[in-house]
Structures are given as C-alpha cells and as structure tokens.
Write a structure and sequence with these properties.
It is built from eight helices and seven strands, in the order E-H-E-H-E-H-E-H-E-H-E-H-H-H-E. With 249 residues, it is an alpha/beta fold. A seven-stranded parallel β-sheet has the order 3-2-1-4-5-6-7, sandwiched between helices. It has one domain: Rossmann fold.
Length: 249
Amino acid sequence: MQQLKDKVAVITGGNSGIGKATASLFAREGAQVVITGRRQDIVDEAVREIGHGAVGIVGDVAELAHHQALAETVRARFGALDVYMANAGIINLTHSKTVTPEEYDRHFATNTRGVFFGVQAIAPLIRDGGNIIVTSSLAATKVLPDHAVYAGSKAAVAAFARNWAIELKPRRIRVNILSPGPVDTAILGKLGVSEADRPAFEQQMASLIPAGRMGRPEELARAALFLASEAGSFVNGVELHVDGGMTLA
C-alpha cells in the first residue's frame, strides 16, 4: 500500500541530494510531487529522474517573490497540498573570524528567511491534518569546526518549527524537524572535498559516527517519509536526528 497515495507534496531543494531522494520516494509512495530548485537544467533533470508526473518549479528560496509564486502555482494546479518540506539550503564552512557580512547574509537569507517565509506563504494551502518538515542539521545542536554561521541558521529553523507546531494546532498540522548528520551527497564537492580526497574524508567522518559510516540520501528520505505519513501521525514538534548516532559521540 502506498503511504502517500493521492497526497500532494512540495519539496524545496528537491533537485538534488536529500531533497531529490525524498521526492523520488514520495512519488513512488503515491504522492504528486512538486520540487523547486535554482537552475532550470538541474530541475528538469531531477523531474525526469523522479518521474511519476513530478513537477519542477525554478526559483530561489532567498527571494520572497518565489514563495508567493510557488503558492499560486500549487493553488492553480492542485488546489491544496498535504506535505511541505522546507529543505533547500546552503553551507559554506568558515571560521567565525573570517566570516564576511555577505557570507553571513547569504546563509540566513537561504537557510532561515527562506524557510520562514516559505512556510508563511504555503501554510494557508496545507490541508487540515497535513504536515510540514523542516530540514535542520546536526550542527544546530552539536558544535563542529567552522560551522558557526551555518549552525546558527539551522538552529533558528528548528525554533521556528516548534513554534509552528503550536500555532498550527487548531488545524492539526504537524510540524517536525529532520536533522541530518554527514550524508554522502554532491554537496561534499561544494565543500571542497575532491574525488581524490573523498576516501580519506569519508574515513575521517566514519571515525566520528557510531554507525561507522556516513549516511545515504535514501536513509534521510525514509525518515522524512515516516514524518510525512500516517506512520508518524502522533509525532509532532520533534527533532529527529538521522545521524548514525553522531549526536552522542
């Protein structure tokens, strides 16, 4: 039985990594999936890979007009939605002493403001009894080298989510936080990890994780499915760490 049959799910940053893996799983589980991303070519490629009638919308979550346009598109095409996953984000690791105002603003514009105003725009369209998933990070609760600005931007969205769980109580909309640890995605390349350095990096990460390895996008997708589906129907306002136990290390 498909766990999201006849549901409409919108996933920001659904064109790569955890977002795309989640979109693919949700689509296989019967959902009409809408993904967003910043580049037309990458969004188009992701839509083809996801299949199942997935819809791709190009836009930048840092731009407030994008959220209104997304909400209008969802309203026009589907009338409403059931699951909203605020997943789009950026990361640039820098020691606090060298962080520039531009870098700080870029993190908070995408990771924090983009989540807040995305939910503000889309929440009126979420059916009563639906749910919101906010992607935070292990870094929001565990101090990691050079993560200060990124961690702050992700800690804020976890605080938003807990407040929304109470604010949306009259509509029975659940709001939960998905906090990944290190995950093997293309973002490693954006952090400057070359293919040559990758085995050493993965070994180093594995030594810090009780599970002995990095996570896979598909594992985060299954956790998101739990939160989005009836399997998680009595779960609300929690921060689910999917990190192989790294929180404890």
